[in-house]
């Protein structure tokens, strides 16, 4: 037991070379995902966080982000922090004591938005949706009539249980008609599937860097509509979160001034990730994601395993697979990582494992390696699966759906 007078000695630690695996793991879980070489290269650079070079970089990041969010709104900002920091920026700037919030709750991440809203002192009501399903429009309408919220929160893709809120556009329209601002968590879906901020009437969209965009974790993006920005600027007391105060962040992201020292390397990485999205175009990126995810799903089903979310509301960006009886998610994730150097995810206590289909994960060579490693893992762990049938189904689906779609 050390006492205040015991010297604090220099710790005996090992280098990263001794900690990290010799061959990098293929990151096929629910994020972070593999990053392209241009992103990795940018992430190794440090420049002045203020000045002409950074102003140019920030200008292009905002311009490209507007394309990815599909918005003409000026109010795009970056956030130093995870997707949750962007989430908290949205919630904490728009909600305060007395604000009425309706949170459509599909799972772990939509509940996180509700919890953040509660912490602002807002009055929060959740519309609880059963696992593996989405909110019905009539239930949303009834909740809007009853609660008369100032803000509605919803997640486009609930990564935790792999459910896709495919009626987001209709729900946003209902919320708008009821006079509410709509906050959308697109952390796992942005650039993997259509989301049209302006056309769908969305007032705040948040995303992280480490999923669909295939950038590094730790630098995130947010866009506010004019109406949301008016509410941010109109509040009569400051946001308790100084770092996440959008009015202070405006100084850096719009006025070339200082807020805090920006994570320059991460912003450069994000710039390159966005540039690659723009070079590919959203249309082609969506097609690549769809093709790869459907092929993976076909491969898993042909192995003889069950997908967790029913088809109409199945998220393509992250595929959930039921864990066969007698195994735990940790058994599977541990084995595939150790034996095959492929990393996949469990999910917050649910009996599933998740394979991501975001950004660089959606490449044919990554799919074959992952499906093979997953099938082999099942065989090794004593589950009867048809591995050749799985790989054949993957190949067939890619060939059938793939004409003209690069992956
Ligand atoms: C839908 C969704 N929202 C929010 C988050 C939180 O993002 P982060 O872990 O970067 O804070 C995640 C992360 O997995 C997510 O999938």
UniProtKB/TrEMBL annotation:
Tell me which cofactor or cofactors this protein depends on: pyridoxal 5'-phosphate
UniProt superkingdom = Bacteria
Q: Which PROSITE patterns match?
A: AA_TRANSFER_CLASS_5
Q: Which GO terms describe its molecular function?
A: alanine-glyoxylate transaminase activity; L-serine-pyruvate transaminase activity
Kindly state a single biological-process term from the GO annotations of this entry. glycine biosynthetic process, by transamination of glyoxylate
Is-annotated flag, keyword Amino-acid biosynthesis? no
Which keywords belong to this entry?
Aminotransferase, Pyridoxal phosphate, Transferase
Which stretches make up the Aminotransferase class V domain? 47-345
Its family remark reads: Belongs to the class-V pyridoxal-phosphate-dependent aminotransferase family.
Q: What is this protein called?
A: Alanine--glyoxylate aminotransferase family protein
- Give the species this sequence originates from: Trinickia violacea
């Amino acid at each position: 037991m050390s006492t205040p007078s015991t010297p604090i000695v220099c710790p005996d630690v090992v280098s990263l070379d001794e900690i990290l695996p010799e061959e990098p793991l293929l990151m096929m879980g629910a994020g972070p995902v593999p990053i392209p070489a241009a992103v990795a290269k940018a992430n190794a650079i440090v420049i002045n966080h203020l000045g002409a070079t950074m102003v140019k970089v920030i200008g292009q990041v905002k311009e490209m982000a507007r394309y990815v969010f599909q918005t003409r709104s000026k109010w795009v900002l970056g956030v130093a922090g995870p997707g949750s920091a962007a989430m908290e920026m949205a919630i904490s700037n728009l909600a305060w004591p007395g604000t009425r919030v309706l949170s459509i709750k599909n799972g772990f991440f939509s509940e996180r938005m509700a919890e953040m809203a509660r912490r602002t002192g807002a009055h929060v009501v959740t519309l609880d949706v059963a696992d593996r399903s989405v909110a019905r429009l009539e239930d949303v309408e009834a909740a809007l009539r009853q609660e008369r919220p100032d803000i509605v929160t919803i997640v486009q893709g609930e990564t935790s249980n792999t459910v896709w809120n495919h009626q987001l556009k209709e729900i946003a329209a209902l919320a708008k008609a009821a006079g509410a601002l709509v906050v959308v968590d697109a952390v796992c879906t942005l650039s993997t599937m259509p989301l049209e901020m302006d056309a769908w009437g969305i007032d705040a969209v948040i995303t992280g860097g480490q999923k669909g965009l295939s950038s590094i974790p730790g630098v995130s993006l947010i866009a506010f509509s004019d109406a949301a920005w008016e509410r941010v600027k109109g509040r009569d007391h400051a946001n308790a979160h100084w770092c996440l105060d959008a009015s202070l962040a405006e100084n850096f992201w719009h006025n070339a001034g200082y807020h805090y020292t920006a994570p320059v390397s991460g912003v450069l990485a994000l710039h390159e990730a966005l540039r690659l999205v723009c070079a590919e175009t959203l249309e082609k990126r969506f097609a690549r994601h769809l093709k790869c995810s459907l092929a993976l799903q076909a491969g898993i089903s042909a192995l003889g395993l069950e997908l967790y979310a029913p088809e109409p509301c199945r998220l393509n960006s992250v595929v959930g697979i039921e864990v066969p009886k007698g195994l735990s998610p940790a058994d599977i994730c541990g084995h595939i990582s150790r034996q095959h150097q492929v990393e996949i995810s469990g999910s917050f206590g649910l009996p599933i494992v998740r394979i991501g289909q975001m950004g660089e994960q959606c490449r044919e060579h990554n799919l074959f390696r992952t499906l093979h490693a997953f099938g082999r893992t099942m065989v090794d762990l004593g589950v009867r699966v048809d591995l050749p049938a799985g790989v054949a189904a993957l190949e067939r689906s890619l060939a059938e759906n793939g004409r003209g779609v690069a992956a």
